[in-house]
Design brief:
Order of helices and strands: EHEEHEHEHEEEHHEH
EC number: 2.7.7.76
GO molecular function: molybdenum cofactor cytidylyltransferase activity
Keywords: Magnesium, Nucleotidyltransferase, Transferase
Largest sheet: 7 strands, mixed
Helix content: 25-40%
Organism: Phytopseudomonas flavescens
Oligomer: single chain
InterPro entries: MobA-like_NTP_Trfase, Nucleotide-diphossugar_trans
CATH architecture: Alpha-Beta Complex
CATH topology: Spore Coat Polysaccharide Biosynthesis Protein SpsA, Chain A
């Protein structure tokens, strides 16, 4: 593990209701993607990035913000956090490392590919109190907006469509399977 590096919080507590509604028969994170579960692809990228990881499998509330707060509380001693949903199996280790490195210069780092914002979103240690107070569905949008308004958020341009390629439906899973072939 890299010293003084942020912890990657992998969000894996969602119910995956859109995936099941689209015809999926299991939790999307456990769906097979070329011989291993979707979540395992994400965890492999984090491992290759050389960063510590904390997977949030359950949270007190139902929303993404609840999961973020739970993960940050569980890793309270970290120097910062990268929030990465568990359904982005194509994210690269290099993208994860790039966001982590950019936290040395900015309080919040939002990766961008082709004009669209993706994940993982990075938060420096100074965001701790705001992150553990989050709840609901909106994720950490309020924290990002506050730091952006203060000129302390960086939009980091990356050459990785994997920061955007999530799996919400069975059709998404099939599209990603085709991309990997």
């Amino acid at each position: 593990m890299l010293s003084n590096a942020p912890v990657v919080i992998v969000l894996a507590a969602g119910r995956g209701s859109r995936f099941r509604a689209s015809g999926g028969t299991s939790n999307k994170l456990h769906a097979d993607l070329h011989g291993k579960p979707v979540l395992e692809h994400v965890l492999t990228a984090v491992e290759r990035a050389g960063l510590a990881v904390h997977v949030v499998h359950s949270a007190p509330g139902d929303g993404m913000a609840d999961s973020i707060a739970e993960g940050v509380r569980a890793t309270a001693g970290a120097s910062g956090w990268l929030v990465l949903p568990g359904d982005l199996p194509l994210v690269t280790a290099q993208s994860i490392r790039s966001v982590a490195a950019a936290l040395a210069e900015s309080a919040v780092v939002v990766p961008v590919f082709d004009g669209a914002k993706g994940h993982p979103v990075g938060f420096a240690r100074e965001c701790f109190d705001e992150l553990i107070a989050l709840s609901g569905e909106a994720g950490a949008v309020s924290v990002v907006q506050r730091y952006r308004a203060a000129g302390r958020a960086l939009q980091l341009q990356l050459d990785d469509p994997g920061i955007l390629t999530d799996i919400d439906t069975l059709e998404d899973l099939q599209r990603v399977r085709r991309l990997l072939e």
